[in-house]
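Dear colleague,

Thank you for sharing your sequence with our group. We've completed the structure prediction you requested, and as agreed, I am returning the results in plain text so they can be pasted directly into your records. Please verify that the sequence below matches your submission; if there's any discrepancy, let me know and we will rerun it promptly.
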Amino acid sequence: MPDAGWRRARQGNSLSEVYASIRVPAADASFWRKLMAFWGPGLLIAVGYMDPGNWATDIAGGARYGYTLLSVVLISNLFAMLLQHLAAKLGIVTGRDLAQACRDHYSRPVSLVLWVLCEIAIAACDLAEVIGSAIALNLLFGLPLAWGVVFTVLDVLVVLYFQNKGFRIIESIVAGLIFIIFGCFVYEIVASNPDWLALSKGLMPRLEIVTNPAMLYVAIGILGATVMPHNLYLHSSIVQTRAFPQDEPGKRSAIKFATIDSTVALFLAFFVNAAILVTAAAAFHGKGYENVADITDAHKLLTPVLGAGAASVLFAVALLASGQSSTLTGTLAGQIVMEGFLNLRLKPWLRRLITRSIAVVPALFVTILYGEKGTGQLLVLSQVILSFQLSFAVVPLVLFTSNKAKMGVFVNKPVVKVVAWVISAIIIALNVFLLWQTFTEGA
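Please find the predicted structure tokens below.
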């Protein structure tokens, strides 16, 4: 029974306008045909792991400590792979996205608190995308940051236009933007000519990361910026765009292919995050530029330091593609969260306008009053807010997928359950430490 173990019965489908809108081949179809049918949601998820909020932490880690923190980027992605698997499984098995699951499990007051926290996190994520896009437009075209912030509001029209053309169109646009980001960083790595031996050693965790307080702080920042809470809500919803059979074999197959899709896509995200850190390490570490931790400074220095003419331009192009692709997923996440927690359906343009205004107003205010320095600090603040919200998304997700009454035969195996709770505890502890450090330093 789909409502077994839940406080409330299921009310409607997640993203009802695109629910089960993409056909899935019959059970006897080839592996590759099935994979292609499920391919797409993972790319939308991967975007959140390479958004502009991640760039500053990766640049700081590479410039200050060389390749040492590559292992942190890798571990963060491995954590993300398991959590996204659980999010996909929740959506496929229960027919609920994470927001709907919270509404149907918790009391009304608790559900409303979780909704408010999630809306704040999505606004913070949108803030990072707005600022990242504005910085990219400034770097590429010299557009003042304030005008860049205003210009990003226009993407509402683009998103709404393509959303009406079908979900596959959205997935294709994001895939194209990811390809641009990927291509730009292939060039950056070749141009920076990294020390490949040191790079490979950097993938192995070192005790120094924990014993050196300054390095630990940057490492926690990388982790906090990598695992995004809104992605868990998003993934649990968009896997339901596939019209798979609602029986045990159909759900088992859907979980399998959705997991392959998200895991491969997150490897692409790992490459991008690792490439940002590697480029910063090769270009700045040990060359007198260890204090580079700002996107704008990195852009200015890449071409003169590397001697590669296109390095700075492609860096900015990748940043713009990152900001715009994150905008698409942020739109969907906002819709999923509001509809899921409140069962409230607004017209897409109105929902987008509300979310965008919450992000644009503070960004515009800070850019006019404080300029580049202010926007950089606002970018950091957005990541702190996301870190705070992460625990409130991860704990319910692990709790629901470990509950046999809710998941039936698909409940987490004992090993998965233990690993998931250990990862949750690590994320919570590190993010609490990051918040404490941030606010005590600012005091």
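Summary note from our side: The two ends are 53 Å apart (CA to CA).

Kind regards,
the structure core
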